[in-house]
Amino acid sequence: AYYPDSLPAVVDIGPGSPTGVTFGYGAKFPAKYQDAFFICDWSYGKLYAVHLEPAGAAYQATVEEFVSGTPLPLTDVVVRPEDGALYFTIGGRNTQSGLYRVIYKGSESTAAAPAPQPTKEMATRRALEALHTPTAPLAQVLETAWPQLAAPDRYLRYAARVALEHQDPKAWREKALAETEPTALVNALLGQVRASAADPEHPRPGTENAQGLTKEAVLAALGRLDWAKLTSEQRLDALRVYHVLFNRMGQPSDAERQTVLAQLDRHFPARDQRVNAELAQLLVFLEAPQVAARTMQLLATAPTQEEQIEYARSLRVLKSGWTPADREAYFRWFLKAANYKGGNSLNGFFKRMKSDAVATLSDAEKEHLKAILEATPEVQAVAVAPPRPFVKKWTLEELVPMVDGLKGRDYDRGRTLFGAANCFACHRFAGEGGNNGPDLTGLAGRFSAKDLLESVVDPSKTVSDQYAAVVIRTHDGQTVTGRIVNLNGDNLQINTDMLNPGGTVAVKRQDIDVMQPSTLSMMPNGLLDTLSEEEVKDLLAFLLSRGDRSHAMFAQRGE
Prior knowledge:
Elements: E1 18-23, H1 31-34, E2 37-41, E3 46-55, E4 58-68, E5 74-80, E6 85-92, E7 95-102, H2 120-129, H3 138-145, H4 154-165, H5 173-178, H6 182-197, H7 215-223, H8 232-249, H9 254-264, H10 273-285, H11 291-301, H12 305-315, H13 324-337, H14 346-358, H15 363-368, H16 370-373, H17 396-402, H18 411-420, E8 428-429, E9 432-433, H19 449-457, E10 470-474, E11 479-488, E12 491-495, E13 504-508, E14 512-517, H20 533-544
Antiparallel strand pairs: 1-2, 2-3, 3-4, 5-6, 6-7, 8-9, 10-11, 10-14, 11-12, 12-13
Helix pairs in contact: 2-4, 3-4, 4-6, 6-8, 7-8, 7-9, 8-10, 10-12, 11-12, 18-20
């Protein structure tokens, strides 16, 4: 999502089964809901209202649970102009079908809401997108698009680069190679590589571009960047240029390989795990001498399965620089990863990664590692962080004063502690973690530090309807507590453990005697009791940062 030649989601809904969608246009609802984007989730029985707000050249969004039921397998949703009501249907997989109407009763005005006005940045973006054609005059494209290559808004940078890519790359190549502003340079070089390598006259990978762009010229321009002065985002963008360059224009020469290693090898590992993921890929591709040992250390300490998978995937094709101990540790990781949770394809991806890695082994290495390669993984309920020693039973009264004026905190230690407390097992944050609990990235916009601490110290005080459990008592006296995550005919699938999102218990509808909401949160108590005061501060700063390493709460730290 952070690649400069891609664009991110406006908001991450989380797990579910998306079905029908509609905007609230024409509904006799308050203005907020007339402009909302309504989306159905079949699995979790939710109708969400997504509230979009202009943010620069694009939008930001918040998600509201608009209608929910247990069960409520939503299939489609529309607004009926004749009465201004919202209608939705349920059913599917042999479950009971139904049609529901939603009307508004209240004191707020339901008059037609005015159309939202575009921002200045949106107007600029549309002007740039109008130039996404090879017939646009070059002079106009350069005048309009070039200044936006360094715009603070990534959507403007994206639109500007694409406008340039529609032009003959030779016409603006020298300007790109001579650019001095780091963000503009990186985006211009990315556009050059994409446009030149996509040209019909471009020969097959491994040879130089017939249009005149050379890897040597691009690498020389990238080499002018002062890595220590770049932000994490600029580093990520620069690394993307290296990746696309070698992918589209072939393997570097020995001299080019040494040039890149001299530029980048000393900067690995970095503090930002995203930068580490991209550096690991590049340095493995270049067979950097120390990349195996350094990446294995990152693999051993990474707090999330996403970060670990990044490193394991990169290392799978590395042929040189391995020690026997690192080789053993690498293949033992697959035994642990067999318990990681994800989509149905995850285990298949692991098998392919392992197969690629085995293909790099010599016959002697295969024989030495035979016991590990052929071992059967131990099945665990869920892969959780190792237990930490008890520090103290923190109370809300003790915690609240220590978070006033958070300054000089450590983002990376906060992220590590988020994993050590098993928070990543259930919650997403900044694109990482599980989906069995709410995404916590936007906490700072909804909770004060005190509210956040209270929800951790006493998770059952306020339980979100969206993630509330149900208590089911069957006719034979059994009790099942958890969230309904799927329906199939008369069968309900209940997740009973948030740390194990893939583990469910099946309950037949006809066997249910009583089903009612649970008053207890599925979030465990005492999550802060293994943390010191300084660790609590780092964790809280991480949670309130919205994933922004440059937030004022964090001291500036060098690489």
